[in-house]
Amino acid sequence: MLTQTEINIIKDSAPALAQYGEDITGRFYQILFQTNPELSHIFNMTNQKSGNQKAALATAVYAFSKYVDNLEVILGDVERIAQKHVSLGIKSEHYPLVGSALLQAIDEILQPPQSVIDAWTKGYAILADVFINREQVIFDEKAQQPGGWTGTREFTLVNKVIETPLITSFYLEPNDGLAISDYVPGQYIAIHMHPVGSENHQIRQYSLSSAYHKNGYRISVKKEHSPHGEGLISNYLHDSVNVGDTLNLTNPFGEFYLQKSSNPVVLISGGVGITPMQAMLETLVADSSRKVHFVHGALDSINHAYKEMHNNITETEQVTAHVFYEQVSGKLADNHYQGRINLDLLKSDLPRSSAEFYICGPLAMMKAVYKQLKTLQVADENIFYEVFGSSKTLAE
After folding, report:
1. Which residues of the chain carry a pLDDT beneath 50?
2. Rounded to whole angstroms, how far apart are CA atoms 170 and 220?
3. Do the bridges between strand 356-360 and strand 319-325 make them parallel or antiparallel, or are there none, so unpaired?
4. What's the rounded Cα separation, in Å, for the pair 175 and 210?
5. CA distances from 315 to 107, 318, 367 (A)
6. Any residues with CB less than 8 A from the CB of 312 and at least 6 apart, and which?
7. Partners of 270 in the beta sheet?
8. pLDDT at 227 (0 to 100)
9. Are 266 and 396 spatial neighbours (Cβ–Cβ below 8 Å)?
């Protein structure tokens, strides 16, 4: 346990971490990969180039310093990170390596008194134990459930369906023909691969995009393009992975999923953020009578993934659809709107007091939707969201 003096030292370092956090985490990754190059096969090196990973880590380190005496506040972040770590194959022996690099970076950038390094050394050890213990529980539970496995497992691509010009669905079945892990809609699997021409082993996490089927999994992947190199694996999947090829997958993981309740559900998605919502939508229609409001935003009708399926599903009394297109040609169908998602247009229809709201999409879209939900006085405990890539918060 930390002493009160050690707690005070860590909390007093919060302002410096807020100011120099990304300098520290940037240096941390340099040290980590210089001293432990094998870890470059676990971390997403594209996120290193873009700066997303160091920004996310800086936020996490700052949060720990601020709430070191009240860790319950960041338990949600701990669970999200722990789920991702198990999916990536993070092991207990990695934590001392990470801690050593982090403490060295803090020492180099802030040049604090030894008492600060000593307090952070002890604080990091406590936090590492929290992650190690939780990740072991997640690992064991998933491995022991029917159809579960350890590490990665070989799956064959049995079908590849173009949903939009940028989104393709991949249907995967296990090579051994045995049972596969069930999952809660909203969760993801990780693909572990080493594409031809890539310097590093690559790991990417993709939301499962359908209700559970005992024969296999479906993921739907957007082909990404960016100046920082995002899209290495999405482009490889689209262009070079074909029916009959083998991919190595983890069990499904993730802390963002459809809650077990009888409450109405509002699914709000933008672009490829529709993937976990599609799994939720299909599951709700197949297995429950819960009232569903489905809200989706896309560039236009051509870039609306699963459009025909939505037209069929939302003709039922259970599901009400609201679709927003930024670009429109011709007459809009009923419950279709031009522009970005605007919940003010729907407030007379949405069940605000008792509903659960699920959000997934580009970060800017999610922040805008979150603000709209707060304006509509939706409580935070009824808002669930998934941010693709490095973890970020919507409440800024």
Report:
1. none
2. 6
3. unpaired
4. 20
5. 61, 8, 30
6. none
7. 297
8. 57
9. no
User: Using CA atoms, how far apart are residues 275 and 207, in angstroms rounded to an integer?
Assistant: 6
Q: Distance (Å, rounded) from C-alpha 17 to C-alpha 27?
A: 13
Q: Among 391, 375, 366, 381, which Cα is nearest to 268's?
A: 366
Question: CA 73 from chain center: how many Å?
Answer: 20
Q: Which pair of structure tokens corresponds to residue 12?
A: 């007093």
Give the integer Cα–Cα distance in Å for 44 and 129.
Answer: 24
Task: Give all strands of the β-sheet with 356-360 in edge-to-edge order.
Answer: 336-338, 319-325, 292-298, 265-270, 356-360, 383-386
Q: Is 392 helix (H, G, I), strand (E, B) or coil?
A: coil
**DSSP letters for 229-247:** -TTHHHHHHHHH--TT-EE
- Distance of alpha carbon 268 from alpha carbon 2, whole angstroms: 42
- CA neighbor of 145 nearest in space, from 176, 116, 180, 117: 180
Residue with token string 């509002």: 266
Alpha-carbon dihedral angle through residues 296, 300, 304, 309, given to the nearest 10 degrees: 90
Cα 20 to Cα 2: distance, rounded to the nearest angstrom: 24
- Taking only the tens place, the pLDDT of each residue in 65-87 is 999 999 888 888 889 999 999 99
Report the alpha-carbon distance of residue 361 to residue 275 in Å, rounded.
9
Which DSSP helix (H) or strand (E) runs through 321? strand 319-325
Contact 275, 219 (CB under 8 A): yes
Active site residues: 95, 135
What pLDDT was estimated at residue 229? 57
Tokens for 182?
């069930």
The CA distances from residue 253 to 87, 188, 380, in Å, are 7, 6, 23
Burial grade of 289 (CB within 10 A; 0-12, 13-18, 19 or more): exposed
Residues 6+ apart with CB under 8 A from 110: 13, 16, 20, 24, 116
**Cα gap 101→197, rounded to integer Å:** 29
Residue 334 in tokens: 């009923």
- Tell me how many degrees the CA angle 234-82-61 measures, rounded to the nearest 5: 95
- Distance of alpha carbon 292 from alpha carbon 263, whole angstroms: 9
Q: Record the pTM.
A: 0.91
DSSP string, 76-101: HHHHHHHHHHHHHT--TTHHHHHHHH
